[in-house]
Design brief:
heterotrimer, A mainly alpha (317), B mainly alpha (309), C alpha/beta (323), A: 317 residues, MetI-like fold, C: 323 residues, alpha/beta, 5-stranded antiparallel β-sheet
Chain lengths: 317, 309, 323
């Protein structure tokens, strides 16, 4: 099958999942205790006020009508408004900056995890059972067990409290405004996020690259006298395939980690935002986050699949 | 399982020093969790004062005004750190173990049904739903659920949820899809085996086939995965506690204790940020190594599979 | 095509030893194998799995696994004694190797055209356009239908038999003098197997190449090989021309193998040799075959028998006259 057809089919197969995500997101309204009515009426709202609010919000309409109204809003970029934290502010506006911050944190963390992980993994695959290999085994188990938020606390303690480095401070990340401060804000969070996951990446890389060395077709290329660099290139190409799936998975892990690491460093991303919003039950905000994050993850899986299809002709069929 | 086979498996398990270490640590933590109230020197909410009436200095080994010696010092509210760690471990473990076991039972149920009726409408619907749930990073789902339900707790029918219950529910929600998938995966090949066909031909009702013939033969993979998920559950529970979405005060929980340590930053007491974090790490380490070990023992051919989070 | 020296052997190796690991973990896979192959000849290395036959074949092209080592007293190629390094340079050019199990021998992410042309690129002086033509010609030569249009197909789009033809095309690309075919039909159907051997036989004659054939199937050896070495537990127990070897086997092991094949073919019953081949670490003292041998005496356990030259055959058995 051609690559284009494969990509098209992947896109189509993502649609049902996307629709389910909108159901999930919309359904949150119903599992939030009190929902928007309680929030808007406040603690002292009279029953009459509550009825009025219900009518205004259209909560008495049939469920599918409400759903369609909501999804129409979503498509035009209207995700509703904040009720408690900043009454009247559109959700879309509230979320923009935190999303950008978290995006950069994830990217930086993934970069650290992949560079460190791939390098150590490749080196220990070339020299199995060397000291580097043992070191990578031990550190991967250790980093798997060490919570990234604890690593973050330790980093902050050492560099911020003991040494009092100025770059240990992390804040708003906005590359359109302050590039230096943005970069500086990324340093420690990225190390905390990345190092905690580098071990896993290293382990997988080592396993896959080690296996591929003994694959018959690599042996065939060797005995056919092909130059070493060609054989190594083919080894990398075939060894990288399973690592590509890990790529998406690592990014997912790092994204997950940003929630906690943001809280440690006080980096104003969606993690910190969500935790602050958590106690106020901003239902529209939660809905939007489920929708946005769900969509991002679906797209990321899609991208991984497509990348895999580009690299491996077998999966295209 | 006959004796000889058990001995082979046991030797394989004992052979890996790391796994034995993990097992011993896990066992130790279980003892701490079970006998916590007997082991802890003080209550988790008991506050102590230093001689001058001030709060106790936060230090390893400090003595209170009334002469008690606190082995690991106290937290910022003068509560014994060691006792809080013991009770905190208990909380974290109870939440983790109960959520993983509930998710496993649910997954065995769902997975064997969908696997047995592979390709049916029921299977399609459940699997689609699971696909959708799987797109979320686990802890996010938990954060959103806890956030939606609030830390104060809400009424569902006769029960009022506590934050602990919400976390358990959220974790069950995140683990079940993955475990179900595994269970379904190991059920499908078994469902086509001759002994199942024989049972069908004998006219055995499907629920009996699933419960007594099929399921007992498909449990290995899901139990291995559940063990590794224990580590993950500890991670998530502590993470939520750290975010301030854990059990309410004064109930201690490992993540909560760790979050509090940030208050000591300026005192430069390294031990206080080290100990709770290290406890969490040890727990996660023990469970994941143990899970890997059990996997290697039962299924030596197995290689890496994404440790879903 | 390289010129063939008709007078002497094309390839000769003396006292080949292959071992894996080192120190206390050292395991000998092949002990003292010598092999001589003339122009256009096929020499078969016969044995059960675990006999060391694949290790011997792999050693010839220096393709042993990372923990494998080999050495030999003398290597002669086309009448000239060569060093190991020189042998290394010959592989992929004058000496090529055909992998067993075609399903895993081809790189799954490259088109077969790329895989054939690559070998041409590094081992011939053809231009890019010539390589394209040559690749098509090679594919036609191994009887792949519609060769030109299938150049851009990936390995997984071919059947097992077709994949093995492609492996053969790659091995033939540099116009080798010697082809080492390691059980070239592993995992293929019997009918496909016959086709592959027929093709190999025809191409061998057309290209006047010599073949070292690694096989466990005596039927295949009888029809395609001129000479055969019977390998058991890393040692050559008997060797000679296929005609004389099959007419009068002198080693109990060869006899057992032949009986097995004969009974299976004629009477449709299997009379296996009792016992199993010893593993790498458990080779017995004395004659390696004695634990399974019906002619065994105390002398067999005492010393390892030397290869004795008889007319047209060599055999490593002290009881060869009694057989």
């Amino acid at each position: 099958m051609s690559l284009l057809k494969y990509i098209g089919r992947r896109f189509v197969s993502a649609i049902p999942t996307l629709i389910l995500i909108t159901f999930l997101s919309f359904g949150l309204l119903y599992i939030t205790p009190g929902g928007p009515v309680e929030a808007l009426a406040g603690m002292f709202g009279t029953p009459e006020q509550k009825v009025r609010i219900r009518q205004e919000l259209g909560l008495d309409d049939p469920v599918h009508v409400q759903y369609l109204r909501w999804i129409k809003g979503v498509f035009s970029g209207d995700f509703g408004e904040m009720i408690v934290m900043a009454p009247g502010t559109p959700i879309a506006e509230m979320l923009r900056k935190p999303l950008i911050t978290t995006f950069w944190l994830t990217v930086a963390g993934a970069l650290v995890a992949l560079t460190v992980g791939l390098t150590i993994g490749a080196l220990s695959a070339i020299k199995p059972n060397s000291w580097l290999d043992s070191l990578s085994r031990v550190t991967s188990i250790a980093t798997y067990s060490i919570p990234d938020f604890w690593l973050a606390i330790i980093l902050l303690f050492v560099f911020g409290v003991i040494f009092r480095y100025r770059w240990a401070i992390s804040g708003k990340i906005d590359f359109s405004r302050n590039v230096v401060f943005s970069l500086q804000s990324l340093i420690l969070p990225a190390i905390a996020l990345g190092l905690a996951k580098a071990g896993i990446v290293a382990r997988i890389t080592r396993g896959e690259l080690y296996d591929v060395q003994n694959k018959p077709f690599i042996q065939f290329e060797r005995v056919m006298g092909l130059p070493n660099r060609i054989v190594i290139k083919d080894m990398l190409h075939n060894g990288i395939l399973p690592i590509v799936t890990v790529l998406g998975y690592t990014i997912g892990l790092i994204f997950r980690g940003t929630f906690l690491v943001e809280v440690v460093f006080g980096t104003p991303g969606i993690g910190l935002f969500l935790v602050r919003a958590a106690k106020t039950q901003e239902y529209a905000l939660l809905q939007t986050l489920v929708l946005v994050i769900g969509t991002v993850f679906i797209l990321m899986n899609l991208l991984t699949d497509i990348l895999y299809g580009v690299l491996d002709p077998r999966v295209r069929t | 399982m006959n004796k000889a086979r058990f001995r082979i498996l046991w030797n394989r398990f004992i052979g890996d020093k790391l796994v034995v270490l993990g097992g011993v640590i896990a066992l130790l933590f279980l003892v701490i969790a079970v006998f916590g109230p007997q082991l802890a020197p003080f209550g988790f909410a008991q506050q102590f004062r230093a001689a001058a009436g001030e709060l106790l200095p936060i230090d390893v080994m400090s003595t209170t005004a009334t002469g008690e010696r606190l082995l690991l010092g106290s937290d910022s509210l003068g509560r014994d750190m060691l006792s809080r760690l013991i009770y905190g471990t208990r909380t974290t473990l109870v939440i983790s173990i109960s959520s993983v076991s509930m998710a496993t039972i649910l997954a065995i149920f769902l997975g064997s049904l969908t696997g047995y009726f592979q390709g049916s409408l029921f299977d399609e619907i459940v699997m689609r739903l699971i696909d959708a749930l799987l797109t979320f990073p686990g802890i996010l789902l938990a954060v959103i659920l806890v956030a939606a339900w609030g830390t104060q707790g809400i009424k569902i029918g006769p029960i009022t949820t506590t934050p602990e219950l919400t976390i358990v529910f959220a974790l069950v929600f995140t683990f079940t899809p993955r475990l179900t998938r595994t269970m379904r995966g190991s059920t499908i090949p078994q469902a086509h085996r001759a002994y199942i066909k024989a049972a069908q031909l004998m006219g055995m009702p499907f629920w009996r086939i699933i419960a007594f013939e099929l399921t007992p033969n498909c449990l290995t993979a899901v139990i291995i995965q559940a063990t590794t998920y224990l580590g993950l559950a500890v991670f998530s529970t502590a993470g939520l506690g750290f975010l301030g979405l854990g059990p309410a005060e004064p109930q201690p929980e490992l993540g909560k204790i760790l979050a509090r340590t940030q208050e000591y930053f300026l005192n430069r007491q390294f031990w206080h940020i080290f100990i709770p974090g290290f406890t969490i790490s040890l727990l996660v380490f023990a469970f994941s190594v143990l899970g890997d070990g059990i996997r290697n023992v039962l299924d030596p051919e197995f290689r890496f599979e994404e440790a879903d989070v | 095509m390289a010129t063939v020296n008709d007078a002497g052997p094309v390839f000769q190796i003396e006292n080949l030893n292959v071992h894996y690991g080192a120190g206390r973990q050292r395991l000998n896979a092949v002990n003292g194998l010598s092999l001589t192959i003339g122009a256009g000849q096929t020499v078969a290395i016969v044995g059960e799995s675990g006999s060391g036959k694949s290790s011997a074949a792999m050693a010839l092209v220096n393709g042993l696994a990372a923990n494998g080592e080999w050495d030999a007293d003398r290597i002669v190629f086309q009448g000239q004694e060569i060093s190991r390094q020189e042998l290394m340079r010959l592989r992929g050019r004058a000496i090529t190797y055909m992998m067993q199990d075609p399903s895993s021998a081809l790189n799954p992410v490259l088109t077969i055209g790329e895989q054939i042309k690559r070998v041409l690129k590094y081992h011939t002086s053809l231009s890019s356009a010539e390589r394209e033509d040559q690749a098509i010609e090679l594919m036609e030569r191994v009887e792949i239908p519609d060769a030109a249009s299938r150049l851009n197909a990936y390995p997984h789009e071919f059947s097992g038999g077709m994949q093995q033809r492609i492996v053969l095309a790659i091995a033939l690309a540099p116009s080798p003098v010697l082809l080492i075919a390691d059980e070239p039909t592993t995992g293929l159907d019997v009918t496909v197997e016959a086709q592959i051997y027929a093709l190999l036989e025809r191409l061998k004659r057309e290209l006047t190449m010599s073949v070292v054939l690694v096989a466990h199937d005596l039927g295949v050896v009888a029809t395609s090989a001129d000479e055969a070495l019977v390998l058991y537990a890393g040692k050559v127990v008997e060797s000679g021309s296929v005609a004389s070897l099959f007419r009068r086997p002198r080693h109990p092991y060869t006899l057992g193998l032949l009986r097995c094949a004969h009974d299976l073919h004629e009477k449709n019953v299997l009379n296996p040799i009792p016992g199993r081949i010893p593993g790498l670490g458990e080779r017995p003292h004395g004659c390696v075959f004695h634990p399974r041998c019906a002619w065994k005496t105390d002398e067999c356990e005492a010393a390892d028998p030397e290869l004795i030259q008889l007319d047209g055959q060599s055999v490593a058995c002290i009881h060869h006259e009694n057989l």
